[in-house]
Amino acid sequence: MYPDHTPHAPAQRAVEVHQPTPLPPAVAVSAPVVPVQPGSVPAVASIVLPDGRVVTGYAINPAQPEPVAVKPAVSRTAVNVALGGVGFLAVCGGLILLTSFIAALTVFISQLIILAAVIFGGWITVELFSASGHQGGTTVHIRKATFKRNKFYG
Questions:
Q1: More exposed terminus of the chain, fewer Cβ within 10 Å: N or C?
Q2: Could you give the CA distance from residue 44 to residue 41 in angstroms, rounded to a whole number?
Q3: Is 51 within 8 Å of 21 (Cβ atoms)?
Q4: d(Cα 34, Cα 113) in Å, to the nearest integer?
């Protein structure tokens, strides 16, 4: 960037400022003139640099700075606390629903056990007290039967 043969520091150098010299726009005589709507073609500017080069180009609009982010009306801490409260209530509600579901399931299973006992007990009762229960089995009158030496005589 700086030549090595300069004996003094770069900050002590004299600075020469060159101002560009604008050129008048070139008009081509031989080319036919075509009518164009005004404003559709941007203006072209040409300048001459100090070393003699000519630079031609369109004007560039200056860069617009990014808009500053607007701070929300409610602080982030308040939003986080509110969301934490909503999450806590959701968990509590879920635990209450889970507890209710487990209690209802326990009652349902106990009612199924009671229903099975009633149905099975009714079937046993019908088998004991019906007349048709003795047809296929052996009838033994215990009062008339005698046991002699571990043998049954009926």
A1: N
A2: 9
A3: no
A4: 100
* Residue at token pair 């404003």: 39
CA–CA gap between residue 126 and residue 131 (Å, rounded): 9
Position with higher pLDDT, 149 vs 90: 90
Question: 16 near 24, Cβ under 8 Å?
Answer: no
Question: Are 21 and 7 within 8 A, CB to CB?
Answer: no
Considering only CA atoms, which of 28, 1, 29 is closest in space to residue 13?
Answer: 1
Q: What pLDDT is stored for residue 62 in this prediction?
A: 75
The token pair at 114 is: 């009671």
In the chain, DSSP finds a helix count (H) and a strand count (E) of: 1, 5
Q: How many CB atoms lie within 10 A of CB 45?
A: 14
The model's pTM is 0.34
CB 133 within 8 A of CB 127: yes
List the one residue out of 52, 60, 54 whose CA is nearest residue 23: 54
Secondary element (H or E) of residue 21: strand 21-22
Q: In the chain, helix, strand, coil percent, each to 5?
A: 40, 10, 50
